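Tokens as discussed.
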């Protein structure tokens, strides 16, 4: 018996449901089975067809089960009928139909068997061969397509790598050119500063000759000079009440040579210096591809010689042999909180970690350009570096490997500063400031507002306020809870190179003193700001050239500033005047206080480092 189609079965069930009174079920089945769309003729099906069909099927199964082996023909006859034939015809009619069909089928079968018996086996073999051939062809074509795809992918990958290499070379070229331009600019500034120094020396010589005049002439010159200074001071007070102008040179304010130690040994300009937070050790970094750790005697210098020859120094070489490659310039350095490790960054893009005994323990390589800034977190387990390659990298110091690289800036990264042990701020030539966090792939916060390169960023002692300064001649104070700056500090006339928070207020050793911010500018001034109100408290106008560095004393009562005019001025914030001053033989790039506040170190463009005794 041939199979009952789904359309026929659906119709039988539909008719059964309809006849049994299941009208809703019949409608649902008819709708879902699409019975009204079929070309099946329902008039051929008598009432109760499904029941009859089931009954006759049971009868057929009963007959089949009771047939003997010699009645096989009858069993085969029933296999030729359609289901509706079994329902609509009686047994005699079925037997007549069966005999007629069987006779015709036997005749056709005999004819087919005679003509095709031999061909079947051959055809089966041929078909098997064709199938095997088709399968082989399919596999070969599949393999060929796979090889072609792999070839195309390899070519695409090579092309992508080639394009990426080209882009990387172009970026490196741009960064090298940017760095070389900056170096040339600094060189030009240095040459100009030397020219100005020669001019000042000429003026000094002329003044020295004037001092050889008689007593009357000298008194007249001094009297005239005093009048001019008094007039200038009076004019300054009338036009800018908050300005603090350096008074006429006073012999009492000059730091005597007995209170100075000149540390000699570097063979190129000294760019950075930093005191150890736990010992009387001073680190310095130079363009001669070395850093040095100087052991500074404690106590006053007056008890001994003041030349640098008696002070021991450990030399931390960044280049092999006697080479002083410019790519090895030491640009930045920082001690960890315990004073046991010193980190240095250089123009070769590598950060190095040294012990306080001068032993190199780690060389950290990831950057593709000079490192301009480098900071330890307070815990001392991570080191943060910022580079000309536009990225900042957090290093796992214990594992001696990079933990995460942050690639957000579109220009060289100029400064970095930790907010806490896991988050930090970065600034760049692209005028943007990003707040980043270890583990995050996007900036936690973006501070946009500057219109020029952002040279420096510093968090206040509580990690709530961030100060920034820029080539746009402004400094800004940002709050972590706001998206825009809180205060816009606009009193400077030229680029602001650096800023520092006072070690006062909440979160410091001087909690009862007011929190202030100091800024140093190319307009030759240092300005002090009220951090809460964003107002200028005073302007220190004693320098004659750009001010590159400043530092608060640990008690927050004094500010030391260093300028290209070769002078270090120490200002009393309370008295509003210079209390000490020292003039060296080159421009000053950085100044810093020791932890006791009794000594000030400064690094000079004439390859020297000076340490000054400070006691009031």
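Sequence:
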């Amino acid at each position: 018996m041939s199979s009952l189609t789904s359309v026929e079965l659906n119709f039988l069930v539909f008719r059964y449901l309809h006849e049994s009174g299941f009208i809703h079920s019949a409608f649902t089945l008819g709708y879902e089975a699409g019975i009204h769309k079929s070309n099946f003729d329902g008039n051929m099906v008598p009432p109760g067809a499904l029941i009859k069909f089931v009954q006759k099927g049971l009868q057929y199964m009963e007959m089949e089960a009771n047939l003997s082996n010699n009645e096989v023909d009858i069993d085969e006859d029933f296999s030729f009928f359609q289901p509706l034939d079994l329902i609509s015809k009686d047994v005699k009619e079925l037997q007549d139909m069966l005999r007629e069909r069987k006779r015709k089928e036997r005749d056709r079968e005999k004819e087919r068997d005679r003509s095709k018996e031999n061909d079947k086996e051959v055809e089966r073999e041929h078909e098997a061969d064709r199938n095997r051939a088709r399968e082989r062809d399919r596999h070969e074509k599949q393999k060929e397509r796979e090889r072609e795809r792999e070839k195309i992918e390899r070519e695409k990958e090579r092309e992508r790598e080639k394009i990426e290499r080209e882009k990387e070379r172009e970026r490196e070229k741009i960064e090298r050119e940017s760095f070389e331009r900056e170096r040339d600019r600094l060189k030009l500034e240095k040459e100009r500063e030397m020219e100005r120094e020669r001019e000042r020396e000429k003026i000094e010589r002329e003044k020295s000759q004037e001092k050889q005049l008689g007593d009357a002439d000298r008194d007249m010159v001094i009297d005239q000079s005093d009048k001019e200074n008094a007039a200038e001071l009076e004019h300054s007070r009338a036009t800018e009440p908050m300005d603090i102008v350096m008074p006429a040179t006073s012999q009492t304010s000059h730091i005597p040579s007995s209170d100075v130690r000149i540390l000699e040994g570097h063979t190129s300009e000294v760019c950075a210096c930093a005191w150890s937070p736990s010992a009387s050790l001073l680190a310095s970094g130079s363009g001669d591809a070395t850093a040095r750790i100087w052991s500074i005697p404690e106590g006053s210098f007056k008890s001994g010689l003041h030349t640098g020859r008696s002070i021991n120094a450990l030399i931390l070489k960044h280049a092999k042999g006697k080479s002083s490659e410019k790519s090895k310039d030491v640009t930045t350095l920082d001690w960890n909180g315990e004073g046991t490790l010193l980190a240095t960054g250089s123009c070769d893009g590598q950060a190095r970690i040294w012990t306080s005994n001068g032993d190199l323990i780690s060389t950290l390589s990831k950057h593709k350009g000079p490192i301009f800034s480098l900071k330890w977190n307070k815990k001392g387990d991570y080191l943060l570096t910022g580079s000309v390659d536009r990225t900042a990298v957090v290093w796992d110091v214990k594992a001696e490997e990079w933990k995460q690289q942050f690639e957000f800036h579109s220009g060289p990264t100029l400064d970095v500063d930790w907010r806490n042990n896991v988050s930090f701020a970065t600034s760049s030539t692209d005028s943007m400031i990003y707040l980043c966090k270890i583990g995050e792939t996007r900036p936690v916060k973006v501070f946009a507002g500057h219109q020029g390169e952002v040279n420096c960023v510093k968090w206040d002692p509580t990690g709530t306020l961030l100060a920034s300064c820029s080539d746009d001649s402004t400094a800004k104070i940002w709050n972590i809870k706001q998206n825009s700056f809180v205060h816009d500090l606009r009193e400077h006339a030229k680029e602001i190179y650096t800023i520092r928070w006072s070690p006062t207020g909440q979160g410091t050793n001087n909690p009862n003193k007011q929190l202030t911010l100091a800024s140093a500018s190319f307009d030759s001034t240092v300005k002090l700001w009220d951090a809460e109100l964003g107002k200028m408290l005073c302007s220190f106008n004693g320098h004659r050239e750009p001010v590159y560095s400043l530092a608060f004393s640990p008690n927050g009562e004094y500010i030391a500033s260093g300028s290209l005019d070769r002078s270090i001025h120490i200002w009393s914030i309370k008295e509003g005047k210079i209390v000490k001053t020292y003039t060296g033989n080159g421009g000053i790039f950085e100044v810093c206080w020791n932890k006791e506040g009794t000594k000030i170190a400064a690094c000079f463009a004439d390859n020297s480092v000076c340490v000054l005794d400070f006691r009031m």
